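Bench notes, afternoon.
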Amino acid sequence: MKYLILLLVIGVVALLLGFKRRTPPPVRRDDETKKKALTMVSCAECGLHLPVAEALPGRGGHFCSAEHRNAFEARQGGVQ
């Protein structure tokens, strides 16, 4: 019985060490990428804050979605 418990403990330790080794290394970003990822802008239509890397550019600023960009530009007379 004690050998079974010892074998179980060794198996759990080996399993935990195996999972620890499989974790991918952290992604290294240069300073330019960090600045771009951390820069926040607000949607010109609804005011939602989002990272500039995820924002859609438009004639009136940045937008959170294509629908908001189209609605804003239609109201401003930018879309025929």
